[in-house]
Design a protein that fits this description.
Strand order of the largest sheet: 1-2-3-5-4
Pfam families: RNase_PH (PF01138)
Organism: Acanthoscelides obtectus
Oligomer: single chain
Radius of gyration: 18 Å
Protein name: Exoribonuclease phosphorolytic domain-containing protein
Structural class: mainly beta
Distance between the termini: 25 Å
CATH class: Alpha Beta
Largest sheet: 5 strands, mixed
CATH superfamily: GHMP Kinase, N-terminal domain
Number of strands: 5
GO biological process, one term: poly(A)-dependent snoRNA 3'-end processing
Number of domains: 1
Number of helices: 1
Order of helices and strands: EEEEHE
Strand content: 25-35%
CATH architecture: 2-Layer Sandwich
Family: Belongs to the RNase PH family.
């Protein structure tokens, strides 16, 4: 099977799945004790950890009097892909994905219920395998 072919001659993908099969999904909640919420998620060979702190009292300079501030940080472990990056955080792609995560959470969290507070969300990709959106 060449790299450009998605299926082998017997109809299997590179990871052994048939054309119509989805990647296996595994989820474990409460993996850390310190955060207010945490989760470990696998889909195929992609592995992600997430931790949520809050809502808690926000800093005076950043807090909003009418709603909650949602702070998100997305990063990829330096060992998560075959490309080794020197800076796992703060690069343009991580900053962009942090912003998208923040926008998604702001649309589903009723931030007006938590004035003068802050929610911190940290997402770390331990192994990236699959989609090319996290390069």
């Amino acid at each position: 099977m060449s790299k450009k072919e998605l299926l082998s001659k017997i109809g299997l993908r590179l990871d052994g799945r048939r054309a119509h099969e989805l990647r296996r999904i595994r989820c474990k909640l409460g993996v850390f004790t310190e955060p207010d919420g945490s989760a470990y998620m696998e889909q195929g060979l992609t592995k992600v950890l997430a931790a949520v702190y809050g809502p808690h009292q926000g800093s005076k300079s950043k807090a909003h009097h009418d709603n909650c501030l949602i702070n998100c940080q997305f990063s990829m472990a330096v060992f998560s892909t075959t490309d080794r990056k020197k800076r796992p955080r703060g690069d343009r792609k991580s900053t962009e994905l942090s912003m998208h995560l923040q926008q998604a959470l702001e649309s589903v969290i009723k931030t007006e219920l938590y004035p003068w507070s802050q929610i911190d969300v940290y997402v770390e990709v331990l192994h990236a395998d699959g989609g090319k959106t996290v390069e």
